[in-house]
Amino acid sequence: MSRGGRDDSSTLPPGDAFAVLGNETRFEIVRTLWELYEPEDPANVVKFADLYDGDTAVSFSELYEAVGYGDSGNFNYHLEQLTDHFVRRTDAGYELTEAGFEIARSVVAGTVGEKLRLDSVEVDEPCPRCGAPVVIDYDNHHLAASCSQCPGIWQDATGDDGVLFTFAVPPSGLTDRTPEEVFHATLRYNLNRIRSFIDGVCPDCSSAVEQSLDVCDDHEPREGGGCPHCHRQHAIEVAERCHQCKSVARGPLTIAILAHPSVTAFYHDRGIVHDFTAWETFRRAQTLETELLETDPYRIRVTIPCDGDRLRLTLDETLAVVDVVQELSSATSTD
């Protein structure tokens, strides 16, 4: 089924998709159609009924001239190879399909081909564990945030402690932003993705997500570093995986649980605006307590404290919250 009830073409196997795009002329056709597309044109405004009901197509002659290919017959052959999968043919001409837009966006975002580096620089945010300055650096399309003093949350690939997070972000995320703005944009970009994973929807391809728990049975976090067995400070980690596009996410359960609606409501009732995509989430995660109640199957209790009150959430092995209990302090009960 396709959007707007339109029956698009049959599925293109990944190997065939790579073969179709593995040609300079075809790639140039996709790029040119993207450049000719004007999102501010009223005809291109997304409509709930049919995304493609506007006359946004480019005629064959206009596209041929814009690409600048010499042989019209050969050009038509390459265009036909893209049609139905990356390019759509209409009565008015040609336009990109959603798959074609995704290819073009990857190039524009700098994911394909562009390499940027950001040398280590302090940002005006404290470490959620010790309050020391946070240092960020960017390389290989990833932004890493580390504590300048304490062991952080993880060890990096070389075994060094201090890592707070390592998140993927396209080079375009650094454009026209200060280091602090890059830091916060990376958080919002990735924590929104993580929230989608937690909701069971892959943020890259919208397929169903497999969720699992990774529990360190012999957890021994060291004062000066991570656990020698799991190389992290937290004993329980959530793993998310999409088997369709192989997108993955991993992180502490104490961060993932903060996306739950009951947590947001718990904070709200105490006058606190809880924004899951903000840096404050990492600080709040340090105050949570986890307790492994059962191992076969897993049953875990997470306790969230606030102003003397406690919210206790019990999760099963599928990460579903099966019990919610609020424990009020005597002061709150009196009020």
From TrEMBL:
Signal peptide range in chain numbering: none
Source organism, top-level taxon: Archaea
A Pfam family: DUF7351
Residues of the DUF7347 domain: 14-107
Residues annotated as domain DUF7351: 124-321
InterPro entries in the record: DUF7347 (IPR055771), DUF7351 (IPR055775)
Listed name of the protein: ArsR family transcriptional regulator
UniProt source species: Natrarchaeobaculum aegyptiacum
